[in-house]
Batch of 2 targets.
Target 1
Amino acid sequence: MRIGELSTHTRTPVRLLRYYEEQGLIASDRLPNGYRDYEEYVVDRVLQVRGLLDAGLPTRIIKQILPCLNTPRTIHMPYVTPDMVATLEHERDRMAEKIECLTKNHRAITDYLDAARRDTRASYR
Amino acid sequence: MRIGELSTHTRTPVRLLRYYEEQGLIASDRLPNGYRDYEEYVVDRVLQVRGLLDAGLPTRIIKQILPCLNTPRTIHMPYVTPDMVATLEHERDRMAEKIECLTKNHRAITDYLDAARRDTRASYR
DNA sequence: TCGAAGGGTGACATTGGTGTGAGGGTCAAT
DNA sequence: ATTGACCCTCACACCAATGTCACCCTTCGA
């Protein structure tokens, strides 16, 4: 698949796809004419990257953890350095914090909206 | 409390406290000499702001939704414009997406680490 | 064969959060 | 009276993610 198609499939500007590649987050082959050529799975990959990016993780970190998240479950895990383990644990904990924070505020918004709705209905009676 | 104290309490650079104020996320009185003077509750506020910021929300949005999250449960909700409701619903949904994405990846990291640990133990036997 | 659509690289601009420094006040302790 | 810690404002700098533009090439259909 060429970059335009990938772009529409992922609703991601072409510019960013090239940027993600430059940052080592996605890979592409090249057609004889120099055009990028993507495999099917890259679509999911891009969506995952965007999700993580949108959740506030920098590309630097995403690049580090992506290889560990890749869904075609690696059969035998190659040499995980203690360094890598530390990074992963750290990021895992940071993610947990973010989740907690978001969850708390998500609930607060939900509660607020509920209350507002009740209020609105009440004012009609 | 003056800015230095707030800074240590929240482990937040003074620079950023002033920035958050400039963005309308926190408020301060002024002492006769021009120093900023914060009330106790601002500590929590700063932590909340940082959490949201760290989770990827821009100050613009935080500023909009903060008034709705403020814990001293407002007794009667003042005129919530339909506009505001729409914004809140939108942000709520975006937060839900982020939570989902982070949760998924958090689990993936956790699983990966578990597998790696098993692998390591196995190689000792 | 020509034009439009799509692709390539490279470079500069912008935005938001943050760092840092200059230049200058306040105040408490010595 | 001086020093040192703390505060003020203003301004420039930085980085990462993105937008945008210039300039050139390839493919394909009218």
Target 2
Amino acid sequence: MKTQLKKGTLDMCVLAVLAQADSYAYELVSKLSQGMDISEGTIYPLMRRLQNELWVSTYLVESSSGPSRKYYKLTDNGRRELESMRREWQEFVAEVENVLRGGPAAMTEEAPQ
Amino acid sequence: MKTQLKKGTLDMCVLAVLAQADSYAYELVSKLSQGMDISEGTIYPLMRRLQNELWVSTYLVESSSGPSRKYYKLTDNGRRELESMRREWQEFVAEVENVLRGGPAAMTEEAPQ
DNA sequence: ACAAGATACCTTGTATTGCAAGGTATCTTT
DNA sequence: AAAGATACCTTGCAATACAAGGTATCTTGT
């Protein structure tokens, strides 16, 4: 999967997953990896960003199958941001599809050759 | 419009516009600017890339309203690449929408708290 | 008891790309 | 001659995804 396409969408995807249930970074990677590639090197800095923006809060939970997990929980702020991101995403997709359809109002000037 | 979302899509958008008619960088900016922001600082390096990949060829045309224009024309190679990009784009959008819908097959493990 | 493997956390450095800011030259209009 | 539009271009910066590497914990096999 093309790396560049993901830019800007992974935040939204992570927030969307967290909107369903709290989760931790390692699990988020495996969840998202089912459909799109995402690696640990991506998720940890990303989660830090989400936390800095106050879109998620964290709590530690001991696991019976390994080291403690740092769970992330969507904040009210994060929920609002997710909705905002959704809107922007839909508008963006609509515009790209428009261009792909031959959309950007072909100027009235014929091309040579 | 969010900068990051555009990454990876602008190449495709430019190729799609060129699939309709040859054009030059300055005009491409004004065409695409109708729906999505794109600036000259973006387009020139981008066109260079497309040319290096042999997806477009160029020819100069004198203008009666300013300096000569460097027209870009989609190559056969570029046309194939455009189709490939379209497919990847559609798959990508489908997967993101899937995640947004709550898609990534919720693992059978309940989150605490 | 020890090694191996899975789970879970993290950082560093690199590549790509979009963009603001700045620069040059041409042509038309005033 | 000056101003503005057209058209080309480069440099340096910011954001983000990721490979590669590192640490620690817990379970399982031998």
